[in-house]
Design a protein that fits this description.
With 400 residues, the protein is α/β, with parallel strands linked by helices. Strands 1-2-3-4-5-6-7-8 form an eight-stranded mixed beta barrel. Strand 1 and strand 2 form a beta hairpin. The protein is elongated.
């Protein structure tokens, strides 16, 4: 089946930010997010924006040595493994926060400890100036009267900068310059540039993406295995090469190939990049099916564990690929003809044959029992395997 095209093109804007001497020193990433959508959709929109501006464009996205300013939803800030890198070139905004409380302060402490600068709106800063002075690097002004003279006098000593947004006249610029503001942006100074996401299939090579997710969280990490999987996902391949050859990771010399790029970035950076790009491509319906497939896969692995003749990882693969046709919206027989699976797994998937087929059948029967019996499922070993699978799936899905 031919790959389906992306029916929802995505564009981000980069708004130039200038210093008081009119030098272009940073860019602000702006993208559309609908406040009435579910959190999952907000996360997906954020992922797509970061994928376009940071991961898929390499130094082109970060625009050389200039800093990237970006507002992130609170849901994203709760997931430190997804924070974009490199931290020294990013300033993270919290415009969505409405109240300064203990939870927000802890979150800001964590972000700054990781090397990011924090941008806060003046309305939030004024709720608790003393606490925020210790935790912010840039304050966004909406008017010249936002901060009193006493507060303004404290900022240089704390190395806190002022950002003025949406400048539209020379008079405004001069007024803010007289206040000692540090950063400025608006159409009076420069128009934004726009980056459109590259057209590609709605799902890409979903089979390889699922295997990548699994490989990223295996106990024994094999970078060579990750290299083999990345090769199968073209847009990830390109993004990793750009990332590894960016000035932050690559200090000059000959450009690195994919194998060296995987080693250079390391597991943590690969996990962050791959999860962000995968989340950017997932549709809500795909996530529901992915959860069901992972529960089945983990349960098959749990059921196979006590039997020496069965490879638990083969059982995991059998369970996962039993729903791969739904995940990829492809014909099952066509998929099995092209996927590099062992014959015992293929026999189990096609005919429920062999020991792996028996494990898969047992798992499917229990799923039906759970669905039909609701609260009346016996607390036996079979159900214990199922409950363990639920926990494993929850832990993995939380990283998407």
């Amino acid at each position: 089946m031919p790959e389906q095209r992306d029916t929802d093109p995505f564009t981000v804007a980069l708004h130039p930010i200038h210093d008081a001497s009119h030098h272009h020193v940073a860019d602000r990433l702006v993208y559309t997010r609908h406040t009435d959508t579910e959190a999952e959709d907000v996360m997906a929109a954020t992922a797509r924006a970061l994928a376009s501006a940071v991961y898929e464009l390499g130094d082109g996205g970060l625009l050389g040595d200039r800093t990237l300013f970006v507002d992130l939803p609170l849901e994203w800030l709760e997931r430190p493994e997804l924070l974009p890198t490199p931290a020294p070139r990013l300033a993270l905004g919290i415009a969505e926060a409405h109240t300064v409380d203990a939870e927000l302060l802890v979150r800001l402490d964590d972000i700054r400890e990781r090397g990011y600068r924090v941008i806060v709106p003046s309305r939030l800063f004024k709720q608790d100036p003393e606490a925020m002075l210790e935790r912010c690097d840039i304050i966004v002004l909406s008017s010249p009267q936002d901060l009193d003279d006493e507060t303004l006098e404290q900022l240089p000593g704390r190395n806190v900068k002022l950002l003025v947004e949406n400048l539209d006249s020379r008079d405004e610029l001069e007024r803010y310059q007289a206040m000692g503001c540090d950063y400025y942006h608006g159409r009076y100074l420069a128009k934004p540039s726009f980056i459109a996401s590259a057209p590609r299939g709605r799902h890409g090579n979903r089979a390889a993406q699922i295997r990548l997710i699994r490989a990223l969280y295996e106990d024994n990490h094999d970078l060579n295995r990750l290299h083999e999987l990345v090769v199968q996902v073209p847009h990830l391949h390109v993004a990793i090469l750009r990332r590894a050859n960016s000035s932050y990771f690559h200090r000059g010399g000959k450009e690195v190939d994919l194998h060296r790029a995987v080693q250079l970035l390391g597991l943590i950076e690969l996990r962050r990049l791959i999860l962000t790009l995968t989340l950017a491509s997932l549709q809500p319906t795909s996530r529901i099916v992915l959860r069901m497939a992972l529960i089945r896969a983990f349960m098959c692995r749990n059921l196979a564990a006590p039997f020496p003749a069965l490879d638990p990882e083969d059982a995991f693969t059998t369970g996962l690929f039993s729903m791969m046709d739904a995940l990829l919206e492809e014909d099952r027989n066509t998929l099995l003809e092209h996927l590099p699976l062992g014959q015992p797994i293929i026999d189990a998937l096609r005919h429920r044959a062999g020991p792996l087929g028996a494990v898969l059948t047992l798992c499917e029967n229990h799923e039906r029992q759970v669905e039909e019996a609701i609260d009346d499922v016996p607390a036996d070993r079979l159900h214990a395997c199922y409950m363990n699978a639920l926990g494993s799936t929850k832990a993995l899905m939380e990283n998407l």
